[in-house]
Amino acid sequence: MSMPRVHLVGAGPGNPDLLTVKAxxxxxxxxxxxxxxxVPQEILDLIPxxxxxxxxxxxxxxxxMAQEDINLLLVELAREGKRVVRLKGGDPFIFGRGSExxxxxxxxxxxxxIVPGVTAAAGCGAYAGIPLTHRGLATGVRFVTGxxxxxxxxxxxxxxxxxxxxxLVFYMALANLETIRRNLITAGVDPAMPxxxxxxxxxxxxxxxxxxxxxxxxxxALQPLPAxxxxxxxxxxxxxxxLAWYGERELADA
Length: 254
Ligand SMILES: C[S@@+](CC[C@H](N)C(=O)[O-])C[C@H]1O[C@@H](n2cnc3c(N)ncnc32)[C@H](O)[C@@H]1O
Known about the structure:
Cobalt-precorrin-4 Transmethylase, domain 1; 13 strands; binds S-adenosylmethionine; 5-stranded parallel sheet; Uropor_MeTrfase_CS; transferase; 22% strand; 26% helix
């Protein structure tokens, strides 16, 4: 029996219209779909009813399946000869642990393909009217994790993030907002630097809060946003009031 390849597929940031054509085709042809918590119901509804669905979703501090077990599950399913789609929120290779899964497949000699998806930074930026780069405002962008293993203090190269020409995008950062604000300001970032939080970006539930680095935490305490939420810090955030085109309800301008 030939071994079908495992497809590690990015489902994008939540809006089903942002699935790639390849992702849609693979989902529709899958025999088994192993999926995360961030994959929304509208996308799960595209899975054929004949296919097996395995939820391995993760929430911070509440992992329903250990990553090592997910890695080995993919190996096991591939060895059963199934067409396996591993469906992950956003892009599999950006804070998605898709590379760990791919490494395990490689170690076990299982062929695989990576199908990129629209990562949250691109999706939230586009739908909140925040270009991640803009001539004269940002020459680069940096994706940073705002979460660390267990309950350890977030350790980052804060001084390396003080360049005002670089937009900073923090994933998984809601719980560590105070640490991020404090360390960025200590490293020299202007507290008046525009900052935004975008929750459930690209979906009907999208909400954003526009503030500054210094005031974002307070604004979010007044108007809490649900996860998933992305934090964007940089001069480009100032363009949001002009460029926001998606019909979300205006929440704040702190
Ligand atoms: C484990 S990471 C997965 C990132 C994913 N692989 C990607 O490329 O977007 C989960 C984090 O992504 C961000 N995120 C994912 N989808 C989002 C969305 N629709 N709106 C806002 N943030 C989102 C949040 O910061 C969330 O905590």
